[in-house]
């Protein structure tokens, strides 16, 4: 089998609108199997989890299937998979919980490359207890965040390092295993924001060396919520705030209130949808996911190169995505033209490529773009050559307007 983007696109009802979507970093479109799974959960008996009534049994099965699916996606333990309403919420909750163990003078390392959701929760938690925040800087010319930029900041007082798996602004993918090795040698914990990474690459939290990993299924065809993956034994050492009657088991102690079962069913369907993209038919879902992501990366990288070649040929376009290893995510600015104007012009051509800093404020400032950012072009598994051709032609038309 080969990667059939036409067959893939046929499973996304939204793509029939004719819009060329380059907004995947903000959230992908939804395929029919995911939509049907959500509807199926809501149209079947459903109630609070249990083992007696049909609705209880359905809810219990949905939760178990969700944890197993996300564990396969991330190579994690199902018992360490926790639901959250967003990756931001999960990170804030985790930061508050971990900070309860910190004291004045302890240190936290954050990166300028990151989305603010993996910066501000740690900065604010550190400030509350008098911990010191240290900043790892990336190279604005190359977009690279070398491991030594993190390693140079580590001391015996470092308690946690927070770093992205891939920049949602310029696509840079830091060398996480090398960073993890330095972090653990210093006796600290590593928190990885894999929200952007999980949409484009095979994520193996064990191989990456991440102690905590968050991601968001709506970035890879699923519903809007967040997921935390960690070793259950590590989670068992943490005492988050919770209601007295609610379960103290892991991972339930990190999940507040009744879970949205329909969203969890949709997430399981999204994971299965990705696994079904595998060009080979292994029986093990984890193996199929690994194969599927390899095919996705090959497809996206080829289109990224095509897009870059076309855009680089246009006078007045500056690209800011240069890291050696990166996702198919391009940040563009224009000579004498604001990126916001390009966003609006492309929209008139049914091309959706938004402009801004996309919550990566520190990265945008480090690039010299202030809080304005640029035009973000994000390719997705359903992007095809025609989409890319339309984009390049649309940018060329904008520059002449």
**Largest sheet descriptor:** 7 strands, mixed
Number of helices: 14
What is the H/E order?
HEHHEHEHEHEHEHEEHHHEEHEEHEH
Please state the overall shape, judged from the principal axes of the Cα atoms.
globular
Which stretches are low in confidence, meaning pLDDT under 50 for 5 or more residues running?
none
- Alpha-carbon distance between the two ends: 44 Å
Describe this structure in words.
- It is a single chain.
- This protein has 401 residues and is of the alpha/beta class.
- Helix content is 40%, strand content 14%.
- It contains 14 helices and 13 strands.
- It has helices spanning 5-9, 32-43, 54-74, 87-99, 120-129, 147-151, 176-185, 205-208, 232-235, 261-275, 285-312, 339-348, 361-366, 385-400; strands at residues 20-21, 81-84, 107-111, 132-136, 158-164, 189-193, 212-215, 226-230, 317-319, 329-334, 351-352, 355-356, 374-378.
- Strands 2-8-7-6-5-3-4 form a seven-stranded mixed sheet. Strands 9-10-13-12 form a four-stranded antiparallel sheet. It has a two-stranded parallel sheet with strand order 1-11.
- α7 links the parallel β5 (158-164) and β6.
- α3 (54-74) crosses α10 (261-275), α10 (261-275) packs across α11 (285-312) and α11 packs parallel to α14 (385-400).
- 49% of the residues are buried.
- The mean pLDDT is 97.
Which terms summarize this structure?
four-stranded antiparallel β-sheet, 14 helices, globular, alpha/beta, seven-stranded mixed β-sheet, 14% strand
């Amino acid at each position: 089998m080969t990667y059939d983007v036409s067959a893939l696109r046929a499973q996304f009802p939204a793509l029939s609108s004719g819009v060329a979507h380059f907004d995947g970093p903000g959230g992908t479109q939804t395929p029919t199997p995911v939509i049907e799974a959500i509807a199926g959960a809501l149209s079947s008996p459903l109630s609070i989890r249990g083992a007696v009534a049909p609705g209880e049994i359905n809810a219990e099965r949905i939760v178990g299937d969700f944890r197993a699916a996300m564990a396969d996606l991330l190579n994690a333990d199902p018992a360490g998979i926790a639901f959250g309403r967003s990756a931001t919420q999960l990170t804030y909750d985790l930061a508050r919980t971990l900070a309860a163990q910190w004291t004045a003078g302890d240190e936290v390392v954050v990166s300028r490359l990151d989305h603010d959701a993996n910066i501000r929760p740690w900065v604010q938690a550190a400030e509350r207890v008098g911990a010191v925040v240290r900043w790892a800087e990336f190279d604005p010319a190359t977009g690279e965040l070398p491991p030594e930029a993190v390693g140079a900041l580590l001391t015996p007082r470092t308690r946690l390092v927070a770093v992205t798996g891939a920049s949602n602004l310029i696509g840079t993918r830091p060398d996480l295993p090398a960073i993890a090795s330095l972090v653990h040698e210093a006796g600290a914990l590593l928190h990885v924001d894999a929200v952007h990474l999980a949409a484009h690459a095979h994520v193996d939290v064990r191989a990456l060396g991440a102690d905590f990993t968050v991601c968001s299924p709506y970035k890879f065809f699923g519903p809007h919520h967040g997921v935390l993956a960690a070793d259950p034994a590590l989670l068992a050492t943490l005492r988050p705030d919770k209601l007295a009657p609610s379960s103290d088991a892991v991972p339930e102690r990190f999940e507040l209130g009744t879970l949205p079962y329909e969203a969890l069913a949709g997430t399981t369907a999204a994971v299965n949808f990705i696994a079904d993209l595998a060009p080979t038919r292994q029986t093990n879902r984890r193996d199929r996911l690994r194969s599927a992501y390899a095919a996705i990366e090959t497809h996206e990288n080829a289109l990224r190169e095509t897009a870059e070649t076309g855009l680089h040929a246009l006078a007045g376009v500056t690209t800011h995505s240069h890291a050696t290893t990166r996702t198919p995510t391009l940040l563009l600015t224009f000579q004498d033209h604001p990126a916001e104007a390009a966003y609006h012009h492309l929209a008139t051509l049914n091309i959706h490529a938004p402009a801004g800093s996309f919550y990566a404020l520190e990265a945008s400032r480090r690039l010299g773009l202030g809080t304005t950012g640029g035009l973000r072009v994000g390719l997705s598994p359903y992007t095809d050559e025609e989409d890319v051709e339309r984009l390049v032609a649309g940018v060329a038309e904008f520059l002449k307007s």
